[in-house]
Design brief:
alpha+beta; globular; 2 helices
Length: 124
């Protein structure tokens, strides 16, 4: 898959989410298979998703770096990322923070559709 096809998939998922009232998304193509995406989505209740992906689509979809930070009233609701923690060596690289910085659990790498579904479940 070309990175432009992946960009289109991300944009379609965002455009098809009825709870999003504002979106700012930047797509940067680095090669025909590698790209960087970052954005901010605002939902109908004022909550926000800040996200980034550094992706290679040459063989499947490899996310070298990702983060999906969802917050409401400037407080963390959840965050998925693959940033390693030097003080928590037992923690897998892919993990999820829930509500507070210290509440971290192993998690598989989500895609934007998974994250948007989880946010829709959180909305009033």
């Amino acid at each position: 898959m070309y990175i432009t096809d992946y960009f289109r998939r991300i944009d379609d998922a965002i455009s098809n989410c009825p709870a999003i009232i504002c979106k700012e998304v930047l797509f940067e193509q680095r090669t025909k298979h590698i790209g960087f995406i970052r954005g901010t989505l605002t939902f109908r209740d004022g909550s926000e998703l800040y996200f980034k992906e550094f992706v290679d689509t040459e063989v499947g979809i490899t996310k070298y770096k990702y983060g999906y930070h969802y917050q409401k009233d400037n407080k963390l609701v959840f965050r998925y990322d693959n940033h390693p923690y030097p003080t928590k060596k037992e923690l897998p690289t892919q993990h999820k923070h829930i509500s507070t910085e210290g509440n971290i659990h192993p998690a598989s790498t989500p895609n934007i559709e998974d994250v948007l579904r989880e946010i829709l479940f959180c909305l009033p």
